[in-house]
Write a structure and sequence with these properties.
two-stranded antiparallel sheet, alpha+beta
Length: 590
């Protein structure tokens, strides 16, 4: 008995020491979570607000709601008929973020799509920072402080915060360090096939988070591997066989698991070819790399289209201090193969983000960018050039972490030098401190829809048509109402990428045009009243039949009165029901 008591005491003491040793790591992760929660605070408990790119948030809220519905009802998560009636939407061919939607299903069901979206943003930012912190701590640096700073840069750089406010598929990068850690193992062992299987599983999951990020990881890993091989041929020859073996095993595992989803994406119902926009037009200005992003404490107030395509694509904006610090670190440690490979990778992807013809301070130059050499290659022709610079984020984070670790760990460095280094680091990073993500107002879901009153008007197999039934437009009222009500109804239209027509797979935004949807969208955009003819009325009835409509609903719109008058000219007087204008069109369409 005494022996057992003593043994238990030893175990308790060991656990306490273990918990004490891990407490700083927990504090770092808690700090990342607190920062991410603060950055999203303008939308917590604010159903009337959305992040700056509201159309994209509507898309992702709907995707999260749809995934929760698919999980509960055991439906096909790769396709949905809840939008774009009667054709449906190929979700695998869109940014469905199933890798976020499935684990967030309980949150979506309990608290709704908006809360699930904001939780996803927090998870993407804090999760990415945490994953890089762990990789840095275990592989590259000894100092916990150095790893924490590196993770902070990787997870909360201006480009990451900008993408998180709209593009979950670009912000969800918490598996990137995992994939790189499995590809580049410093000491190959006897059972590399196990790491190959894990690599395949990680790649598969990343495909369900965001295929574009996965492509960037593959490209960056390839460039880094070549750069490292050139810098240290001996180490490259030693590591190459095991690395290649892991990659082959991982590729086989991922190919098996992704075979059907990828077939569905490229050949299933609702598949498309090409892109509905010219990706090459979305490039960064060379001056953006030293500028300050708008969502930082020293944010640059330049017009959105001057240095970046829009607010969401401010993927560089590192400021002069961080770039100068990176150059100094690179020069200081140039002989280290890791630093040379990182620097080369960062410079190449920065140049690619400048597009086919380089711009400087908003003016086009005669300088051709290296992007023109790859712009016509398969897959790469769909990549937005401005996003190449996201690869620079972890490159800078790792370089800074290495420098901080060297300063903190080297006994030869005097305290005064360390103090000076801390000042330089603060001068470089503090101007980049992010501010809460901007929000914009959004119209509420009408009580007629939110409270379920519409159910008395919409029988099974029929749809609710929101006005305007938008095509090629980000702010889709039907999509927002559907997301916020847990996909309580089916609707035509929506914001997605699909084929131009049933016999034409050319990509386009939204559903194929119908004359009535084009007419109502034009009125909603301009506020100008059109002259309605009998032909327009007959066409409206034909379009409503095509959409299988039971009821037409108008909520809060900027040009609400002109839209109402147009719909009344087409369908007759509206009824005011629970905060919405309602047209029961069942007598018209049969």
């Amino acid at each position: 008995m005494p022996f057992g008591t003593a043994e238990l005491s030893v175990q308790v003491a060991t656990r306490r020491r273990s918990l004490a040793a891990r407490a700083p790591d927990g504090a770092v992760v808690a700090g990342y979570l607190a920062l991410a929660a603060w950055l999203t605070n303008r939308q917590w408990d604010r159903p009337d607000r959305m992040f700056h790119q509201a159309g994209d948030q509507i898309l992702f809220e709907w995707m999260l709601a749809r995934t929760a519905r698919a999980v509960v009802a055991a439906e096909n998560p790769l396709w949905s008929g809840a939008l774009n009636v009667p054709d449906g939407v190929n979700l695998m061919a869109n940014t469905s973020v199933l890798g976020l939607g499935v684990p967030l299903t309980p949150v979506t069901l309990l608290f709704g799509s908006q809360v699930a979206f904001v939780v996803a943003v927090v998870a993407c930012l804090a999760g990415t920072a945490t994953a890089w912190y762990v990789l840095l701590r275990r592989r590259l640096v000894q100092s916990r402080v150095a790893a924490a700073i590196g993770g902070l840069i990787c997870g909360f750089a201006p480009g990451m915060v900008a993408q998180a406010g709209a593009h979950l598929h670009m912000a969800a990068q918490f598996l990137v360090p995992v994939i790189l850690a499995l590809v580049f193992r410093p000491a190959p062992g006897d059972r590399e096939w196990r790491y190959g299987i894990l690599l395949g599983l990680a790649v598969t999951y990343q495909a369900f988070l965001g295929e574009e990020v996965l492509l960037f990881v593959a490209l960056a890993a390839g460039v880094f591997a070549v750069g490292y091989a050139l810098a240290d041929r001996v180490a490259a020859r030693r590591l190459a066989p095991a690395t290649a073996g892991r990659i082959v095993v991982g590729a086989v595992v991922a190919a098996v698991l992704l075979a059907y989803p990828l077939w569905f994406q490229f050949f299933g119902p609702g598949h498309y070819r090409g892109m509905p926009f010219h990706a090459y037009a979305y490039q960064l200005d060379a001056a953006s790399f030293t500028a300050m992003a708008r969502q930082t404490v020293l944010g640059d107030g330049r017009p959105p289209a001057l240095l970046a395509p829009n607010l969401t694509e401010e993927n560089s904006f590192f400021g002069p201090g961080l770039l100068v610090l990176a150059v100094v670190v690179t020069a200081w440690w140039w002989r280290r193969p890791l630093v040379r490979a990182l620097a080369g990778c960062g410079v190449l992807f920065a140049l690619l983000s400048l597009g086919a013809r380089i711009r400087l301070n908003g003016e086009s130059t005669e300088l051709a960018g290296p992007y023109r050499l790859i712009s016509g290659l398969p897959l790469l022709d769909h990549v937005v050039p401005a996003r190449f610079s996201l690869v620079c984020v972890p490159v800078l984070g790792i370089l800074v972490a290495l420098a901080v670790d060297r300063v903190r760990q080297s006994p030869a460095i005097r305290p005064v030098v360390r103090l000076l280094g801390a000042g330089v680091l603060a001068a470089a990073l503090l101007p980049l401190a992010p501010t809460p993500i901007r929000t914009v107002p959004v119209g509420p879901v009408p009580a007629f829809v939110a409270d379920g009153t519409f159910r008395a008007y919409v029988p099974a197999g029929r749809t609710l048509v929101a006005v305007p039934p938008v095509t090629n437009h980000g702010r889709s009222p039907a999509m927002l109402w559907s997301a916020r009500t847990g996909l309580a109804f089916t609707a035509p239209g929506g914001f997605f990428i699909g084929p131009r027509a049933g016999d034409d797979p050319t990509a386009r935004w939204g559903a194929p045009d119908r004359p009535t949807s084009v007419l109502l969208r034009r009125v909603a955009d301009t506020g100008e009243l059109p002259s309605i003819t009998d032909a327009d009325r007959r066409q409206a009835v034909a379009d409503l039949r095509h959409w299988r409509a039971a009821v037409v609903v108008q909520g809060d719109l900027h040009h609400g009165d002109p839209v109402r008058r147009t719909v009344e000219a087409l369908l007759g007087p509206a009824r005011q029901l629970d905060g919405a204008l309602v047209w029961d069109v069942r007598p018209l369409v049969g």
